[in-house]
Amino acid sequence: MKIRTITLIFALAVPTCIFAAHPAKLGKWEVTTEVDMPGMPTKPQPMTHTICISKDDLEKNPEATIPKPRNRRTGEERNDCKVSDYKINENTVTWSLKCEGGQNPVSGSGKIKYTADSYDGTMEMKIGDREMKVVYKGKWISAECDKK
Known about the structure:
By secondary structure, this protein is α+β, with helices and mostly antiparallel strands. It has a single domain, classed as Porin, CATH 2.40.160. Helices cover about 15% and strands about 45% of the residues. The chain contains 2 helices and 7 strands. The protein has helices spanning about 1-20, 55-60, and strands at about 25-35, 45-55, 80-90, 90-100, 105-115, 120-125, 130-140. Strands 2-1-7-6-5-4-3 form a 7-stranded antiparallel β-sheet. It is globular and about 40 Å long. Residues about 1-20 have low confidence and may be disordered.
């Protein structure tokens, strides 16, 4: 009887851990990205862009909420990146990332900690044989996103 009770408790607890509520607030976010790459003669200027986090993102594809590497010239997000080990623990999201297309393969891991209207995060990445650190600062702007 004790084994059944323990099994039932475990079975009920596991989905709660796996499907924890996402800490991101729905709507439009302004995200500033700073890159630090040792050995570069000058530090790149921070990049700021906006993203929209929708209910569908959080329910069907929460990995879409994490920042992906962007082309420094165009600002476009790389579309060859795969997220793995995506985890939510209270107000913190962690993940691993691998981008294998293009000239520069990228691998790394990141962490974002949310508050009610902002977040701070970092991602340690390796691009080819070079290492870099990306710092993210997100600020919630509004519940409404721009129409596409």
